[in-house]
Design goal:
alpha/beta; four-stranded parallel sheet; 25 strands
Length: 509
């Protein structure tokens, strides 16, 4: 009798934990296949520290093949799922297609940047969901400080050392907190014009930072940010992004070359194409994480609307904490579906939250107990070390080195602005010149509209044009050789000089 095949789509928090749990429970009684665009699991909570130069990129990536024994990795991105034929079609990193059949399917495709209909944002902002975006931001911020230090014009200098972060949730708050420390260190070695220092703005339409958390954590984070010099503006949003800055909802125009978009996430659009009931973009499942009408299909993580049994009528939030625990339950229930153990409904208990604010500062309430000062920082870093499935010694070593040595303020230029467009459905992958997107577009007989390259008018429409891959998901297209206006936010030195094989560093997410 052949072993049942389980295909897991996605290796984020939910997918990785599903694979790990299933591997441990089945002990080679099932053929487990993990489909993912990269060969690593990204520990997303520490990504702001990569952008700020605290951690090296590989520290937050955990090898899938090295930590998931008995799991076969297939590199690729799912683009079509046929529930009736029980197949998953995917495209590999070189643009070739393949098909996987399954007896059980686990959809754990996660989420992508949330877009809002704000003029200019798609062209001028960058998200913060993957390693390429963090690497780009690290280079970009370093470059802006270097250019500001050399600028003769006061206004130009001020604009280059002004950084705007939109969204005061977990990610935006940590990016602003870490970013202020990073740029303060950079200017110690490259002083700016007299009277200037790096300025970080953190904007959110909500009445307070971290609006989804306990108010005491919010108050702590707000105080730390303001003491550090971050300009926190609640009840404020961006009405327009232009080539020279952003216009705020209060009418002020802020000159800047940097706009970081952290307004939240939306479920991966793949799940919307399988034709099953949805809840605000998420695939509806029962408490056992199974898709109604298809008991062989499970969904978990950000792409699944999982009933919250602790709050009847509601669904669990799109957080890493829930995704990690979804994965564990999904692994148990998939194993139970072919006779290994018993299935269980998803229930959760709030374990508290931690927010790393850089240095020794943090906001934390483990098990609901709010912690003060440096103790919160110790607990926060201890939590991350305990939660990471690998690289703990390397991460701890980087933290120690950062505490005693100055950070390296250099830009490598390996990830360019056009490689990490905001509206990408694949933030874990950086675009490459002549990459699979172009080959898929050519195979479909589509041409890139003239003047629709990154940074040009109509670029947003061009990136989500009618070119589609075999799964009917939009394949963004762009003119990789368009020379961009160096005054635009996020575009300095971000144009490829030739159509050669420019690639990001290994470990991008």
């Amino acid at each position: 009798m052949s072993r049942p095949r389980v295909v897991i789509v996605g290796a984020g928090f939910a997918g990785y934990q599903t694979a790990r749990t299933l591997s441990r429970l089945t002990r080679n009684k099932a053929d487990i296949v993990l489909l993912n665009p990269t060969d690593y699991f990204l520990y997303l909570p520490l990504l702001p520290q990569v952008a700020a130069g605290v951690l090296e990129p590989r520290r937050v990536t955990v090898s899938l093949t090295g930590t998931l024994p008995g799991v076969r990795l297939v590199l690729g991105e799912a683009d079509d799922i046929d529930l009736e034929a029980r197949t998953v079609h995917y495209t590999d990193p070189e643009g070739d297609g393949g098909t996987l059949s399954y007896d059980r399917l686990v959809l754990a495709v996660g989420s992508v940047n949330k877009l809002l209909p704000v003029p200019g944002v798609a062209e001028h902002a960058h998200g913060f969901r993957g390693l390429p975006e963090a690497l780009y931001l690290r280079d970009h911020v370093t470059r802006q400080i270097e250019l500001a230090a050399a600028a003769d014009d006061f206004k130009n200098c001020s604009a280059r050392c002004t950084f705007v972060v939109v969204g005061a949730g977990y990610t935006g708050t940590e990016v602003a907190a870490q970013g202020q420390l990073f740029t303060d260190q950079l200017v110690r070695r490259q002083p700016l014009r007299e009277g200037l220092r790096p300025r970080w703005l953190l904007l959110d339409i909500a009445p307070r930072v971290l609006p989804e958390l306990d108010e005491r954590l919010s108050t702590t984070a707000d105080r730390v940010l303001r003491e550090r010099g971050v300009d926190v503006r609640t009840g404020t949003s961006v009405e327009e992004a232009t080539s020279t800055g952003v216009r705020l909802s209060d009418g002020e125009f802020v000159d800047t070359r940097t706009l970081v978009w952290c307004v939240g996430v939306r479920p991966d659009p793949l799940v919307a194409g399988i034709g099953r009931p949805m809840e605000r973009g998420r695939l509806l499942v029962d408490p056992y994480l199974q898709v109604p009408g298809h008991p062989e299909v499970f969904a978990c993580g950000d792409a699944a609307a999982v009933p919250d049994l602790e709050k009847p009528g509601e669904y669990t939030a799109m957080t890493a904490q829930h995704a990690w625990r979804h994965g564990k339950v999904a692994g148990h229930n998939v194993a139970a579906s072919f006779g290994v153990g018993t299935r269980r409904a998803y229930r959760h208990r709030d374990l508290g939250f931690v927010v790393d604010l850089g240095g020794v500062k943090a906001a934390a309430n483990p098990l609901g107990v709010p912690l003060p000062g440096p103790l919160a920082g110790v607990v926060t870093r201890g939590y991350h070390l305990a939660a990471m499935p690998g690289n703990r010694v390397r991460v701890a070593a980087d933290w120690i080195l950062d505490a005693v040595l100055p950070r390296q303020g250099v830009q490598l230029g390996l990830v360019r602005s056009w490689s990490v467009p905001l509206e990408s459905a694949s933030p874990e992958l950086a675009r490459v010149a002549g990459g699979p997107e172009k080959r898929v577009a050519a195979a479909n007989g589509a041409a890139t509209p003239a003047g629709s390259g990154p940074g040009s008018p109509g670029a947003s429409a061009a990136r989500t044009s009618a070119v589609r891959d075999p799964g009917n998901r939009p394949v963004p297209t762009s003119d990789d050789h368009t020379v961009r206006d160096p005054s635009r936010p996020g575009t300095d030195a971000d144009k490829p000089a030739a159509p050669g094989p420019l690639r990001p560093v290994e470990g991008e997410s």
